[in-house]
Amino acid sequence: MIPSSPVLPDQASDVARSVDHLMLFALSGLVVFSTLIAVLVLVFMVKYRRTSANQVGIDIYETNPKSHILELVWSVIPLGLLLVLFGWGTKVFFEQNRPPAGAAQYWVTGRQWMWKIQHPDGRREINELHVPVGRAVQLKMISEDVIHDFFVPAFRIHVDVLPSRYTTYWFKANRTGTFHLFCGQYCGVEHSKMVGSIIVMEPRAYEAWLAGEKTGPSATGVASGEELFVSKSCNTCHRPDSSARAPVLNGLWGTQVSLNDGTKAVANDDYIRESILNPGAKVVQGYQPVMPTFRGQISEEELIQLVNHIKSLKGAPAEAGK
Ligand SMILES: [Cu+2]
After folding, report:
1. From ligand 1's centre to the CA of 160, what distance in Å?
2. Which residues are 115's β-sheet partners?
3. Are 191 and 177 in a shared domain?
4. Which residue has the higher pLDDT, 279 or 44?
5. What's the 140 CA to ligand 1 centre distance in angstroms?
6. Cβ contact 179:12 at 8 Å
7. CB proximity list for 259: less than 8 A, separation 6 or greater
């Protein structure tokens, strides 16, 4: 455990600790070797200084076979240290990038210049994210316009949020408190105002907070996935009772879909998002590419509602083409 210091930001997750240990290891190696080299430069400057006017340097390599050993030493030791750094860095990288099974999924939409967040139960908030302490929180993030970056120093999270692709990250806060959220990627004139807070609460307090003011999807101007499915007339083709014109979407989530070019795709968030915006890209086997594109007619937040809705559609997987 590293004590809090004025140099390092707050440390509020286990991953933050791993990142700091790795950073301190790299930093101490840097300090040791920089000092060693600086001292040797000074010592050798004095020790091997020119003492008479006609003195000429000698080629150490030819005259001293021991220099092979010396060269091996200064190659192998740094190699070993760098490999340690590499292996350790890889371990931390995977720790940071692989959410543990059962992590609760939160949606984050970045736009000029705010963060819009949706909880697993559909609750929404802006520039604030309330989470319970000690529970893994998975973030699924997308931008509505330019590239933003979800930056929470206390969790050592610094990850780009891209338009047209979901980025996934996770954290588990290990103490309660309020931590800064920044946009870490210059994104326009009000970039510096694109800030917020992560509020880490005791699980009980979080439950109480969730049960508090009701701001469901419809209360904040975004219709629920179920409503959108009707209002965007998805249901005219994707009727749960027939698979005549379009595949039934019940039970689709997580399955392998056979496409009419002979390949397969996994029905995940990105697949469903693409199916709605660019239906022609992956056409389900046995169907005609008749689905219209909804690009420009559905916002990222509405897409999230639709993805969540399709995810929640249980029942027998669609038969034809699977
Ligand atoms: Cu931004």
Report:
1. 9
2. 110
3. yes
4. 44
5. 16
6. yes
7. 265, 282, 283, 284, 285
257-294 tens-digit pLDDT: 888 888 888 888 888 888 888 888 888 887 888 888 88
Q: Are both 159 and 227 inside the same structural domain?
A: no
Domain count of the fold of the chain? 3
Residue 170 Cα to ligand 1 midpoint, Å, equals: 19
- The CATH number for 208's domain is 2.60.40.420
Query: Are 86 and 116 in a shared domain?
Result: no
Domain boundaries, position 304: 222-312
Distance 144 CA to ligand 1 centre (A): 11
Question: Is 77 found in the same domain as 133?
Answer: no
CB atoms within 10 A of CB 49: 8
Tell me the CA–centroid distance for residue 188 and ligand 1, in Å. 7
Residues contacting 25, CB < 8 A, separation 6+: 84, 85, 88
- Ligand 1 centre distance from Cα of residue 116 (Å): 12
For 56-96, the pLDDT digits (tens) are 877 666 556 677 888 888 899 999 999 999 999 999 999 88
Report how far ligand 1's centroid is from the alpha carbon of 250 (Å).
Answer: 36
How far is the C-alpha of 239 from the C-alpha of 318, rounded, in Å? 11
CA 81 to ligand 1 center in whole angstroms: 37
Q: How far apart are CA 101 and CA 94, in angstroms?
A: 14
Counting residues of the chain whose pLDDT is more than 70, the rounded percentage is: 89
Beta strands 177-183 and 137-143 are: unpaired
Contact 138, 103 (CB under 8 A): yes
**pLDDT mean over 133-137:** 91
